[in-house]
From TrEMBL:
<protein>
    <recommendedName>
        <fullName>Thymidylate kinase</fullName>
    </recommendedName>
</protein>
<feature type="domain" description="Thymidylate kinase-like">
    <location>
        <begin position="7"/>
        <end position="184"/>
    </location>
</feature>
<dbReference type="GO" id="GO:0004798">
    <property type="term" value="F:dTMP kinase activity"/>
</dbReference>
<keyword id="KW-0418">Kinase</keyword>
<keyword id="KW-0547">Nucleotide-binding</keyword>
<keyword id="KW-0808">Transferase</keyword>
<dbReference type="Pfam" id="PF02223">
    <property type="entry name" value="Thymidylate_kin"/>
</dbReference>
<dbReference type="InterPro" id="IPR039430">
    <property type="entry name" value="Thymidylate_kin-like_dom"/>
</dbReference>
<comment type="similarity">
    <text>Belongs to the thymidylate kinase family.</text>
</comment>
<keyword id="KW-0067">ATP-binding</keyword>
<dbReference type="InterPro" id="IPR027417">
    <property type="entry name" value="P-loop_NTPase"/>
</dbReference>
Length: 234
């Protein structure tokens, strides 16, 4: 069974870029890697409904924190078999957004820290829906203002893709960044690593990806007691 690594962060943090760098680092070691990204707007009806709601469709659906979270959770529930298959076939499975995103964004929308809503997400997705828990998680950390600038730049380059309701809410993104940091501190769901995405060049990106992959693979092969305490920043 391969190692499953969830890559988390704000909209515009650079998660997709980091996933590519991590995959290259895995393959440079002679291992195999697969990737999958959530929400699967083009492949799952629940994700499609959530995406439409974020752009104003389906009445008051987007206003309900729990309704939106359930749609995102059902997307992952539908993909549970695919995730298990990819883990069985590859050494490392890299997931762009996962369960922690639901906990972070929902908690931020409710102006909560890690508490009741995050527990509900865990109980719904991991316990009830049996979505596989990741072996490790990577937070791609950037200042919220930087992430917002990237979202605006992306929208300018692709006029057919307007920022959704979450992406356009600067205050929500700032609160979400705080919740993500709490998730890291509490080692929520699995061990975390922090990837400071400063965009200092391809060489620095590669070095950081190498360090994260080395640490994750070491932790995955260590006794459980060692894994739980192995959280680093790079």
């Amino acid at each position: 069974m391969g190692v499953m690594v969830a890559v988390e962060g704000l909209d515009g943090a650079g998660k997709a870029t980091v996933v590519v760098a991590l995959r290259r680092a895995v393959e440079a070691r002679g291992a195999t890697a697969a990737t999958i990204a959530f929400p699967r707007y083009d492949d799952d009806v629940h994700a499609a409904l959530a995406g439409e709601a974020l752009h104003g469709a389906h009445g008051d659906t987007a206003a309900s924190v729990h309704a939106m979270s359930l749609l995102f959770a059902l997307d992952r529930r539908a993909a549970a078999g695919t995730l298990e298959g990819l883990r069985a076939e590859h050494d490392v499975l890299l997931v762009d957004r996962y369960v922690a995103s639901n906990a972070a964004y929902g908690s931020a929308r409710l102006h909560q820290g890690i508490g009741e809503f995050a527990r509900w997400v865990h109980d719904t997705e991991v316990v009830r829906f049996r979505v596989p828990a990741p072996d490790a998680q990577v937070l791609v950390r950037v200042p919220p203002a930087t992430a917002a600038d990237r979202v605006r730049s992306r929208a300018a380059e692709h006029p057919d893709r307007d920022p959704d309701g979450f992406e356009a809410d600067a205050e929500l993104q700032a609160r979400c960044a705080e919740v993500y940091d709490q998730l890291v501190t509490e080692r929520w769901l699995s061990p975390w690593w922090v990837f400071e995405n400063r965009h200092t060049g391809d060489a620095a990106l590669t070095r950081t990806a190498d360090a994260v992959v080395d640490a994750v693979l070491r932790a995955a092969s260590a006794p459980e007691s060692s894994v739980r305490s192995d959280t680093i920043e790079t």
